[in-house]
Amino acid sequence: MSESIERQGQSAVEVATPTRTRDIVKKYGFEFKKSLGQNFLIDQNILHKIVAAAELDGTKGALEIGPGIGALTQHLARSAGRVTAVEIDNRLIPILRDTLAGEANVEVVHADVLKLNLHELFAERFEGLSGISVVANLPYYVTTPILMKLLEERLPLEHIVVMIQKEVADRMAAKPGGKEYGSLSVAVQYYCEPSIVCTVPHTVFIPQPNVDSAVIKLSLREKPAVETRDEAHFFRTVQASFAQRRKTLMNNMSSWIGKDHRETLTSIMEGCGIQPSRRGETLSLEEFAKLSAALYDAGLGLS
Ligand SMILES: C[S@@+](CC[C@H](N)C(=O)[O-])C[C@H]1O[C@@H](n2cnc3c(N)ncnc32)[C@H](O)[C@@H]1O
């Protein structure tokens, strides 16, 4: 269900102002769908910050997920060599045809990004460019599945700069020791170096969401932050360590591996320099990697 629209020239009118956005919405009789996370940005300042963080230039490609009526797309078109914007809502396709009428380097693809073969899309759209980044104001209901798809599919990305719910951004960037640090922090930091670009009040959207937002920049590492014996085992170890946050590492590990292995687990943890009485939320990525490798070598938690 993919449909492409190539554009010619340069559009002059900014989409992301309160008046222009309201005019477009009225002109097309567009009704926002909460179920698709439709909150459109109306603040030029924030758009400039998002685009600046992505470090684009004419040799780079940008993938936008969910262009809406084209507020961010316009800015990307001016900064990147090529832009591909993937939008799920067919009612927005004719609107984008108008608002992006001037942008020669933009292609709109009508699809659900979660169902799209992004490797194929990248080969078709971004071949020959010097780098590709994802830049988006993400629909909040699918933020984590979208980001995990981008990371787990090992797409050749430089940066992911996305507006997401502030609470989720804080969890992604959290360091060990706090209540925000969890398996999402470990998964994101395994693949990327995260930094919060700015926090964003709910007043810069139409309609306004119920939560505050943040722009987070995830710079992809050349190789994962830690070495693992087996990646899937590493992530299973992390999941198990956070299974019940109030429990000690020992209790979480023995629920996963089996109560009859408590002695072995004690000596494995101590061998890694990790006190069994610690909680999962205090372990660094390096410690999770050490623990996973030792369990793996002992044949524990393999399936
Ligand atoms: C938060 S709005 C952002 C709109 C625009 N980029 C802006 O900043 O004003 C999220 C957009 O993602 C689209 N969307 C939601 N789920 C999607 C999916 N699975 N694949 C592609 N686009 C999706 C929505 O229709 C909406 O246009």
Automatic annotation (TrEMBL):
Catalytic activities: adenosine(1518)/adenosine(1519) in 16S rRNA + 4 S-adenosyl-L-methionine = N(6)-dimethyladenosine(1518)/N(6)-dimethyladenosine(1519) in 16S rRNA + 4 S-adenosyl-L-homocysteine + 4 H(+)
Gene Ontology terms for molecular function: 16S rRNA (adenine(1518)-N(6)/adenine(1519)-N(6))-dimethyltransferase activity; RNA binding
GO cellular component, as recorded: cytosol
Top-level EC class as recorded in UniProt: transferase
Principal location: cytoplasm
Sites where the protein binds S-adenosyl-L-methionine: 39, 41, 66, 87, 112, 137
Subcellular location: Cytoplasm
CDD domains: AdoMet_MTases
Annotated EC: 2.1.1.182
Alphabetic keyword roster: Cytoplasm, Methyltransferase, RNA-binding, rRNA processing, S-adenosyl-L-methionine, Transferase
PROSITE patterns: RRNA_A_DIMETH, SAM_RNA_A_N6_MT
One Pfam family recorded for the sequence: RrnaAD
Highest taxon of the lineage: Bacteria
Residues of the Ribosomal RNA adenine methylase transferase N-terminal domain: 46-222
The protein's role, per its UniProt record: Specifically dimethylates two adjacent adenosines (A1518 and A1519) in the loop of a conserved hairpin near the 3'-end of 16S rRNA in the 30S particle. May play a critical role in biogenesis of 30S subunits.
Family: Belongs to the class I-like SAM-binding methyltransferase superfamily. rRNA adenine N(6)-methyltransferase family. RsmA subfamily.
UniProt name for this protein: Ribosomal RNA small subunit methyltransferase A
Native organism: Paenibacillus curdlanolyticus YK9
